[in-house]
Amino acid sequence: MNEEKKSKKLKFLSWVLIICGIYFVFLPNRYTQASLLDFFKSEKDGKEEVINLDAFSRIPVLRGGRVKPMDSVARNTLLVLRNKRTALDENDTKVPAIQWLADVLFAPERADELKTFLIDHDQVLGLIGKKLVQDGKHFSYRDLEPFIEEIEASAQEAGKVEREFRTYFEQNIIELYHGLVLYRNLKTTLVPPPHAPSSAVHDHAELEPLFYNSEEDKDRTSEYQRFRQLTADLIKHPEKIVLGNKEALGPLMYFIDYYARYNLYAEFFPLPPEIGESGGKWRKIGESLVGTEPLESKEKATIDPTRFIATVQSLVRIDETELVENIQSIRENLKLDSTALFAAQYAEAIKLRKGIDPIIEDYEQLGIAYRNSDAVTFNTLVEKIRNQVDQRAPTDTATIAFEKTYNGYEPFYRSSIGYIWILVIACSSWLLSGYRKPGIGTNEASKTLLNSAYILTGLVLLAHTFGLAGRMYIEGRPPVTNLYSSALFISWGAVLLCFLTEKFLRLGIASSMGSLIGFGGLVVAHNLSIDSSLNPSGDTMEMMRAVLDSNFWLATHVVTITIGYSTTFLAGFLGIAYVFSLLVRFLFKRGNDGRELNSKLLSMIFGVTCFSLFFSLVGTVLGGIWADQSWGRFWGWDAKENGALLIVIWNAIILHARWAGVAKIRGLSALAIFGNVVTAWSWFGTNMLGVGLHAYGFMDKAFMPLMIFIGAQVAVIGLAYLPALFGLLTRKKHIQVI
Amino acid sequence: MPQKNKGLSSLSERRKRFGWLIPFADLRLTLTLLSLSMILIFVATLEQVRVGIRGAQAEFFESMYGIWYYPTQFWGGEYFDSIPIPIPGGYLLGGLLILNLLAAFITRFQWTGKKMGIQFIHLGIIMLLIGQLATQAMQEESRMQIDKGESKNYLERFHGVELAFIDVTNPDTEQVVALPQDLLEQGGIHYAKDLPFKVKVLDFGPNCEFNSLPPAQKISGPAKGVNRGVIQTANLEIRPKAEDFSSEGMNFGYVVFELFDGSDSLGTWAAISHPAGNHWWAQINPKMGDLAFQPIRTNGRLWGATLRPQREYLPYSIELLGIANEFYQGTDIPFNFESEIVLKMEENQTRRALVYMNTPLRHAGKTFYQYQMNKAADYTVFQVVRNPSWLVPYIACILVSIGLLWQFSFHLLRFLTKSSKAGLASS
Lengths: 738, 427
Description:
The structure holds two protein chains of two kinds. Chain A has 30 helices and six strands. Chain A is mostly helical. Chain A is elongated, with a radius of gyration of 31 Å. Chain B has a domain of 164 residues. Chain B contains nine helices and 18 strands. In chain B, strands 3, 4, 5, 12, 13, 14, 15, 16, 17 and 18 form a ten-stranded antiparallel sheet that branches. Chain B has a four-stranded antiparallel sheet with strand order 6-7-10-11. A two-stranded antiparallel ribbon of chain B has the order 1-2. In chain B, strand 12 and strand 13 form a beta hairpin. In chain B, helix 4 packs antiparallel against helix 5 and helix 5 packs antiparallel against helix 9. Chain B starts with 10 loop residues before the first helix and ends with a helix. The interface between A and B is large, with 61 and 60 residues.
């Protein structure tokens, strides 16, 4: 009777634990904006009278070479600026990313008050007259505005120092300056920067009436219309394009230059390709009006005015289809002729860029509606913009809805919480097992916890897998494309292997070590995503460089080598588990019952190391074949190649040491733990050298964490020999520590 | 075991016959060698920061031993940086590992089906080691730079120069006689049957610094005795410098030579090679433009002398039709480098081809890889590799893979049968 009651209680306990886990990783909760259920729901209809930011966040735009929802732009830029995916208002209440972005784009004076920037370096704080203790580390643009010139000057000074030799202050000030530029560019993405005609060149009185006038004009499109009238006039009367005709050309040239330069100040591309246009090129607003400058602006000083005007005139005279060809041929054949290139751009601006993209007007009106809190108009316009984008770029927008929900679901954040939960449960099971009375057999409560931890590992692994699969779906790439995703994948692989091990050996060791690696890997990934030198745009799904742009090799070489990292880490962590079990037995003098555990751990470490050797060897060799295919040498002693080779050799050493009988369980564990050091070196250390082909991100910030990690591993290896040393010192030879 | 199997396939028989190999097959030797390789690779990787990949390769991987100095930047560097630490080199460890493996093959491995996986793996590894040694000995890397619309029929070595004499008297045909770097390094007097003069190499160096002194000032250094050509007119002083092995290293090779017609000296010249091509001299200093072609008149013929990257002429040529260099929109991340070319082979055969990332052109034992390109100046650079032993690693990989699969499936099978037995026992 008593037994039955107890087992019911335990069953109940395990259900509670599992349901808590499911709540953390799948269900709607207060820490994330979306749950797994949202992937199956269609978009919710907003209320008419409330501004529907959810719909707004789904508008597709192009940033960083990839079409993504506005939501991703908001989250990624905040990640760069504040290392979080939210902003803060003056009371330190969280402001959702999309609301922050809407403010930045449409109501900048409101956005300037929000705490957008993270500054935690004391000297940088000193530069803006703040103290960490009093003022905190989050600041608004308004706080920083008076110091912008000083920040810029210091950043430029710091920029002169070579990257490897910059001090923390220099790194931080450069980051802050980049952040400010990013923020200002966001503000001027949909709204051009203020007009500033130089009085030396331009006739102010002539230009003034053409500029946008907030009192008289409906919106900025009125100014764009007036510019179009100038160009329409010249298409009709090309003879007006002559040197010295200030009346016709002065304003025109001002506007073309102004709009062309506006391209440089816009952070993303809001306008999808025009209908019937080949190439699928997205545009910024300035580009849509006048195209882009063919060379840097300063090259304009080198053009020959007479020939320039003559070329523009002759180009404007010819008919459109021929003009397109002519411009094309100038761009291909006269690459060093700045006069011809700028003339081609002018001709394009005058004759080919006709009308005003309707989406520009929609965004203008959207901004007005947002500022007036006119929800009905806002929601209608968002709908209208989304429909147009869908029509004009149907293939680009296929994954937008998924990405938006994926952003809100935050699978890796959820998984990392899940891993902690598993770790807690697995550790409690060991504590409980310590209380078992001799002779009664296995402890039921402890067993229940172990089983719950096992099932939870499976569940969290599902969420983790879903996160990886989601990235693959959005990117259309194999799982590992950059350092960030390698961290996600390494932890995933280790957890998967632990899950399988735990299936056969229900000891909680694999569960706990798996969740430890899982959590650690996700923390590393998070820190990589906020490292602005590695991830300057804040988007962890950046585009791949040409040489890496091969899904076949990414799927084979990169994936196998990463599994190799993963299994080597796992062997190392199992080694750590051994050392701690050894210490516990040593300290509490629970003498000889470790033999069974040891032999299990031994075979686990050995088996995992076999896997490591297999994957790292195959991965390295595949890398060699890729290198042979793309550079003509199988092996080039490149830093990253050498790193991979070190892992292979180290795994071979571990296995041969075992076969030679040189290493028993303790030696094997110590070797496996040192494998962590070797792998960490290969994964991160080689990138820090800044040499070789794989130096795709020099990481100054990771240096200290790497050193601490290595130090910790060496310390644990030392601990493994502590009991033996102790035994030696006290000459108690009868203490047999196996 | 049946008696007839007493041949070499029996381990005990082999151990008897090759008893002297047994110490070399020791697993502890393997462990020592592997551990030393770890140190070698780690140190050589660190040294790449200081001397570049090529430098580290020459010092550590392509030698019996290398000398390493503890880096000054490291902790305690100011005390330890002057102690020379010998590190066993690639040839030494590679050779010993091969010996160790071969010995193990003969005196330790059982040549049975059950252990076949092990044999395949180790055979593959022996091949990888030998293949790498062979590659380092035989592989040649050169570059080929082509301007748009132009054809080229020669390659240029990345490293190594030649002193070329070009007879341009007849505008239709050029005759070229070139002294390769080995001969320049040897020094001494060189004859060639097509050359109307003898060449005495007075000084040669793989890298130098140079500056143009005012006309009145006397120059010192290797170019001191020069009395003809550009070096004399520009009053250039040459200061020898160690070769820079890093990947961005710019090496200005120089040579000082005297020409003799019979026993009469024609004068002493010097030449410097520009690492990016001798046409750059005119841009650096108009006075030095002739370093691309220093005229020498003798016996009514006009010759030109130049020191240039060593060339290899091909029996075919490559014409560049166009290049494409595309970036992801709104980023500076390139997603394509591509050259469109026509390969003009013997007997007027032609073939069009696209060369881009991960897709090289292979022809006549050479492989052309997209290496660099310049969109504004419309030229492309191919890296050209000839590696006769390229197939070895592929075969080695196949062997290792078969071996690993064999071995692991064996283990897995055993594990599965064991656990299913255990499952039966517990139920």
